[in-house]
Amino acid sequence: MKITENYLTERDRFSDKNINTPNYDEQIVRQKTQENPEWVHFGGGNLYRCFHGQIAQDLLNAGELETGIILVETFGEDMIDELYHGFNNRSLSVVMKSDGTFNKELLASTAESLFAHASRPEDMARLVDVFQNPSLKLVTLTITEKGYIIKDSSGQLMSQVAQDLRTTISFENLQHTMSKLTYLLLKRFLAGGAPLAVLSTDNFSHNGDRLKATVLEIAQGWQKIGHVTQAFVDYLATGDKVSFPYSMIDRITPLPNQAIAEKLTSEGIEDMVPFISAKQKMLLSAFVNTEEVHYLAIEDDFPNGRPAFEKASGVLLGNRETINKADLMKVCTCLNPLHTTLAIFGCLLGFERIYKEVQDKDLLSLIEQVGFIEGLPVVENPEIINPVDFIKEVIYQRFANPNIPDMPQRIASDMSQKIGTRFGETLKAYVAAPDKDVRALTFIPLTIAAWCRYLLAIDDKGETFEVSPDPLLTELQAHLATVTLGGEIDAHAILRPILSKQAIFGVDLLEIGLAEKIEHFFEQMIQAPGSVRRVLQETLAIHAKNIRK
């Protein structure tokens, strides 16, 4: 059977494959979405499909929502044409439990899928129509951290954005996703200025503020040259019409796993083999594999109303302060920094699965030190989630789950855009605290040194490996061009241009007094093959503190 078959008339066939199906008629949902759209989402990747799509499905099933999500892609048409249109806007969610069992559910909550690009004028026209409709309540985004960046590391506008600010404002002329979003907000303003919530659900702290600042910078750039009025800038800025809530999202969602694809195929479910798309060469799959545990904490600030999120599994609502604390706890201490640490060391030490890394006693001890010993002391308790319970669940249940085939190489992607969020907020907290000394930290500096070592693209065996994609990779590797394994170096001179970059780390590591320690670790790690493991073990032996589990 195929997941595109009619689940209303063929429900028994889906049931025979242990696939849960929607309680609603997707055709009715799509018609209502066409007439009165409520929810638009930018970024159609795996996290959206298994989390936002699941939330909407839960609410549709419960009768708490009558419309579906309108999915928008700006990167490439392959995801829309080959994945969404190819499978009738449906996905098969595969939740992988730690006991080895799977829960399968057919998700049909994506009502439309659009490619916001000049080559698709009909899609752009539909999207403008949606944004002009007062019924629209919220826009959510999962476009990764780099999707919000409009300036390069030197503080200059990226060429795409600079061009967007110079050109005549029309959808077909705009290139950057943030420019397109700002344009759509302009069309809503000109159509009467109905309220709207624009909600980033990407993994970085203060995501609502960064999204708002980026949109405002584009709008103000247009205002300066007379393309828009000050009234439009005020519409975005004051907060009573357009809100930019904070959020914290948490669900480990690896790339589609071949073993799961084979299992699904063996059960008689067709078209489950992941494939490479024709133009963008993306790895796509009709199914999405994810973990059972999930959290989405949202600031409850929706000026035009919202779905009944409180009735969806895993969704928590609170004020800005509460959500900010939950976000900082997860993104900056209890999960993402540990993931980052495992990604960096995992690539250097030849691991291809996260769960295998936490079976390694050195790496397990390392993330315990980064999390429990160096991170938790500066975490503020958000109350809606207990930080100690959360970090224990992360390390000993979620990371250790062998049915989550997550890879350090995936997590290492775009590391220059993430490492400041992962460790920078903790470093700032230590600097700000009168009773803390940032220079006393050991394992966060060790991990930063390991990232610099990782950039050499030579693993701990002395063999070359492929570094994960990163927009600053060429620039960063240029600073390390003279470094060789076993060679003599001036670590301070070589690393200074990297460690002093506040745009990368959130702080100047030289200024706060951590550079010398990082340089020392880096020098030790490049001495010979095996030095990364040796330095890790020696540092743990000397500095590791006992963990009360």
TrEMBL record:
Pfam families: Mannitol_dh, Mannitol_dh_C. Gene3D superfamilies: N-(1-d-carboxylethyl)-l-norvaline Dehydrogenase, domain 2, NAD(P)-binding Rossmann-like Domain. One of its GO terms (molecular function) is mannitol-1-phosphate 5-dehydrogenase activity. It catalyses: D-mannitol 1-phosphate + NAD(+) = beta-D-fructose 6-phosphate + NADH + H(+). Coiled coil: none annotated. The keyword Oxidoreductase applies. SUPFAM superfamilies: 6-phosphogluconate dehydrogenase C-terminal domain-like, NAD(P)-binding Rossmann-fold domains. Keywords: Oxidoreductase. Residues 40-310 form the Mannitol dehydrogenase N-terminal domain. Residues 329-525 form the Mannitol dehydrogenase C-terminal domain. InterPro entries: 6-PGluconate_DH-like_C_sf, 6PGD_dom2, Mannitol_DH, Mannitol_DH/Oxidoreductase, Mannitol_DH_C, Mannitol_DH_N, NAD(P)-bd_dom_sf. This is Mannitol dehydrogenase family protein. The lineage of its organism: Bacteria, Bacillati, Bacillota, Bacilli, Lactobacillales.
